[in-house]
Write a structure and sequence with these properties.
This protein has 187 residues and is α+β, with helices and mostly antiparallel strands. Helices cover 60% and strands 17% of the residues. The chain contains six helices and six strands. The strands form two sheets. It has a three-stranded antiparallel β-sheet with strand order 1-4-5. Strands 2-6-3 form a three-stranded mixed β-sheet, with no helix packed on it. Strand 4 and strand 5 form a beta hairpin. Helix 3 packs antiparallel against helix 4 (97-117).
Length: 187
């Protein structure tokens, strides 16, 4: 009961409280309030500008991603044109296999050059030491004339894009014959 009366008194005091200040202080407070309102408006405008810029950058990014491969596609279209011409030539002149082969070789050379220009290069594999960062062993072959884990055959080429592996080489690696590596047990 006493507690409720005390709360009511505090509430009445806070509602009726009047503060008396000089006119200079009043004008200073009024000026500060105007500045605060101006700053608040600036913050709201800056927030809106930030949101608009963020949306515009996201739109630009999506547009860039959408057309980033345009140059490569244009170069691949040239390779496609060459292939179509070669196939048409082979269909019209069935007996000229050497001309067909030469056409395909030219297209391959064009494709290799295009890949090189874009930072793509093959991973060296044949007769190299097996490295799981660049090679994927699919088979093993007993081979006593090569050191163990040497790549005997490349089954599928691997490629690097700007020195980063985009596809590992699929390889066959050498392994020693069990008798040739276990010399200690024969003695």
């Amino acid at each position: 009961m006493e507690k409720n009366n005390k709360e009511k008194k505090e509430e009445l005091v806070s509602q009726d409280k009047t503060v008396t200040i000089s006119e200079a202080e009043y004008l200073k407070l009024k000026e500060a309030a105007a500045k605060a309102e101006d700053h608040w408006d600036r913050i709201l405008r800056m927030q809106a500008e930030f949101e608009n810029t963020k949306k515009r950058l996201e739109r630009d990014k999506q547009e860039f991603i959408k057309f980033a491969n345009e140059r490569i596609v244009m170069e691949l279209l040239n390779v496609l044109d060459d292939l179509e011409r070669t196939v048409e030539l082979a269909q019209s002149k069935h007996q000229d296999l050497s001309a067909f082969l030469k056409g395909v070789e030219m297209i391959l050379a064009h494709l290799y050059e295009m890949l090189k220009e874009h930072g793509v290069k093959p991973i060296e594999a044949k007769n190299k030491k097996f490295d799981p960062s660049f090679h994927e062993a699919l088979m093993e072959e007993q081979c006593d004339d090569l050191p163990e884990h040497t790549i005997v055959e490349e089954l599928q080429k691997g490629y690097l894009l700007n020195d980063r592996v985009v596809r590992t080489s699929k390889v066959k690696v050498s392994k020693k014959c069990p008798q040739s590596t276990d010399h200690g047990s024969q003695a």
